[in-house]
Amino acid sequence: MKVLICDPVAPTTIQALQEAGIEVDNRSDITAEELLRDAANYDGMVVRSRTKVPAEVIDAATNLKIVVRGGVGLDNIDVKYAQSKGVSVCNTPKASSNSVAELALGYMLALARRIPQSTMSMTAGEWKKKNLRGTEIAGKTLGLVGFGNIGGLLGKKATALGMNVIFYDVITPAEPGDARQVSLDEVFAQSDYISLHVPLLPATKNMLNAEAFAKMKDGVYIVNCARGGVVDEDALYDALVSGKVAGAAVDVFLDEKVNPGNPKLFGLKDDNGFNKVIGSPHIGAATIEGQTRVGAEVADILIEFYKANL
Ligand SMILES: NC(=O)c1ccc[n+]([C@@H]2O[C@H](COP(=O)([O-])OP(=O)(O)OC[C@H]3O[C@@H](n4cnc5c(N)ncnc54)[C@H](O)[C@@H]3O)[C@@H](O)[C@H]2O)c1
Questions:
Q1: 6: Cβ–Cβ under 8 A, 6 or more apart, which residues?
Q2: Are the CB atoms for 67 and 87 separated by under 8 Å?
Q3: What does R_g of the chain's alpha carbons equal in angstroms?
Q4: CA–CA separation, 73 vs 70, rounded Å?
Q5: Which residues of 204-237 are buried (b: 16+ CB within 10 A; e: fewer)?
C-alpha cells in the first residue's frame, strides 16, 4: 500500500506507517497541480485542511482506496463523490477537540481582560492601566451554537469557571451536564458571549448575520473557532462599528489566504485605540498534544485499513 502525505503530519505518524509496512511519500507541500498529476500513484492520501480533494482529484486517483483527514471538518474533500467511487473517507473527530475548546476559552478571557490589546499597548511603550479595566467571565452567560465534541467540552470548562451555559443544537445531547438547551433566538437574546461550534453547512452559512446580531444583547462578545462563513464578516464588521458587538475573537475566516478583508476587521479600534477584534490564523487544533493525538489516530486508521485489506 502506498500513501501520499499531502499536508504536514508528525514524524511519528510516518514512522508508524512505515513500521507497519506501508510505503509513504511525504510531500507535505504538494500543489494542487502536482496532486492531480500524481494522484494515480497512490492507494491512500492523508490531508489536513490545506489540501483540497475535489471530484477531479478522485477521478485522477484511479488506485485510491482511502483518504484520511487529520482533523475534524471534511469540507475540503468531496466526500459523497469519493464514497460513490468506493473510496473510504475518515477523519479524527475528537483528537483536537480539547485544543479548540481551550482556544475558545482563552479567547473569552482575552476579550474580557483585553490581554492582547494590553500587550500591544505596552509594546508601543504605553502604560494605559486606567483604560484597561475589564470584566469577569464568572456569572456571565455563554451561548454555544453547536454542542458536539468541542461545544460540549467548552460548556464543561465554562461551567467550572462559574459561567451559565446555554446552547443551541439540532440534536439533543445525552449528557448536557449543567448546560441548558434553548432555541437559537434565546442564545442570541440571553448570551454575554456567543461561541460557535457548528460545521459549515448550507444551514449554518452566515448563521450570524445582520438579523442575528440585531437580536443580541448590546455589548455581546463573539468567538468564532468554527469556520469562516458561519459568521457574515461584513455584518460582524457593522455590528462592531455600531457597538452592538463589543469585541470579537476570530480563528477562522472566509478566505484563509492573505485577505484584504481581514485587516478591515483588525483595523477596528475602540475609543481608547484598542483593537475590537483579536484573532489567529486557524490555530484551533495547533497544539503539541492535539497534533500528537491527530497523528496517532491517522496512523491507526491507515494501519487498520491496510491490515484489513492485505
Ligand atoms: N479552529 C479550528 O482549528 C477547528 C478545529 C476543529 C474543528 N473546527 C470546527 O469546529 C466545528 C465543530 O467541531 P466538533 O468537533 O465539535 O463537531 P461535532 O460534529 O462534534 O459538533 C458539531 C455540532 O453542531 C451541530 N449542528 C450541525 N448543524 C447544526 C445547525 N444547523 N444548527 C445547530 N447545530 C448544528 C451538530 O448537531 C453537532 O452537535 C467543526 O465542524 C469545524 O468546522 C475548527
A1: 27, 28, 30, 35, 45, 46, 47, 48, 50, 51
A2: yes
A3: 21
A4: 9
A5: bebbbeeebbeebbeebbbbbbbbbbbbbbebbb
pLDDT at 278 over 90: yes
Look at residue 16 and tell me whether its pLDDT is greater than 80.
yes
176 C-beta closer than 6 A to ligand 1 = no
Does the Cβ of 141 fall within 6 Å of ligand 1? no
Show the cell assigned to 18: 512505515
Give the cell for residue 217. 444583547
pLDDT band at 82 (very low <50, low <70, confident <90, very high): very high
Q: Of the residues 69, 72, 149, 283, which should be mutated to test ligand 1's pocket, given the most ligand atoms within 8 Å of the CB? A: 72
Q: CA–CA separation, 184 vs 190, rounded Å?
A: 10
The average confidence (pLDDT) of the chain is 95
Residue pLDDT, tens place only, 95-122: 999 999 999 999 999 999 999 999 999 9
Closest ligand 1 atom to residue 97 Cα is 15
Question: SS3 helix, strand, coil % of the chain, rounded to 5?
Answer: 40, 20, 45
Position in ligand 1 atom list of the atom nearest CA 75: 43
N residues, the chain: 310
